């Protein structure tokens, strides 16, 4: 297989991080699910995410530059900060999409105001993570290693 392009490497890393985070969260709450049908949905989702991650991780051997050294963020602060970062990213994306579907000017203004607030929220969480070494944005090797570690931890939970 050819070396992955940088833009697809970054998207691959985003998908790995996002799905690994969901997988870990689903595994943590599974013991609390009492309804058998809902529990079955969680188990299905866990299996699907694990399968996705195992496939996606295989593509990291095609990444240039090679992955960085060991970086083992704690499952506590790193995980919880990642949860906030994912929520903020999702909010930014959702507001951006909603704005393109809005015909009512007053509603569009509210969406724009809240989009800007979501961007500031994302910035605050990102800054927190970057300052603590939880999001090495300028080192692709370390960034991918964080994603791999998160995915492996989630799979092994």
Average pLDDT level: 85
Q: Number of helical runs?
A: 5
Query: What number of structural domains do the residues give?
Result: 2
Q: Give helix % range.
A: over 70%
Rg, alpha carbons? 18 Å
Task: Provide the structure class.
Answer: mainly alpha
Strand content: under 5%
Distance between the termini: 31 Å
Give the overall form: globular
Order of helices and strands: HHHHH
Major sheet summary line? none
E-strand count: 0
Short structural summary:
The chain is mostly helical and 157 residues long. 73% of the residues lie in helices and 0% in strands. The radius of gyration is 18 Å and the shape is globular.
Helix and strand topology:
Elements: H1 6-29, H2 36-57, H3 77-100, H4 105-131, H5 140-156
Helix pairs in contact: 1-2, 1-5, 3-4
Please explain how this structure is put together.
The longest helix is centred in the last third of the chain and has 27 residues, at 105-131. It contains five helices and no strands. 73% of the residues lie in helices and 0% in strands. The chain is globular, with a radius of gyration of 18 Å. The relative contact order is 0.19. It has 157 residues and is mainly alpha-helical. The chain folds into two domains: 1-71 and 139-157; 74-135.
Keywords:
157 residues; mainly alpha; 2 domains; 5 helices; globular
């Amino acid at each position: 297989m050819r070396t992955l392009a940088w833009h697809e490497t970054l998207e691959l890393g985003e998908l790995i991080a996002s799905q690994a985070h969901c997988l870990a969260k689903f595994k943590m709450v599974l013991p609390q699910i009492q309804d058998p049908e809902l529990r079955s949905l969680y188990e299905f989702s866990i299996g699907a995410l694990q399968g996705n991650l195992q496939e996606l991780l295989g593509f990291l051997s095609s990444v240039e530059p090679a992955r960085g050294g060991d970086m083992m963020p704690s499952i506590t602060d790193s995980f919880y900060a990642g949860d906030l970062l994912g929520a903020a990213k999702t909010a930014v994306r959702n507001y951006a999409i909603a704005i393109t579907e809005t015909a009512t000017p007053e509603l569009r203004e509210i969406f724009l105001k809240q989009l800007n607030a979501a961007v500031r929220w994302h910035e605050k969480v990102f800054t927190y993570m970057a300052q603590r070494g939880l999001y090495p944005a300028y080192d692709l090797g370390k960034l991918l290693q964080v994603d791999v570690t998160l995915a492996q931890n989630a799979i092994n939970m």
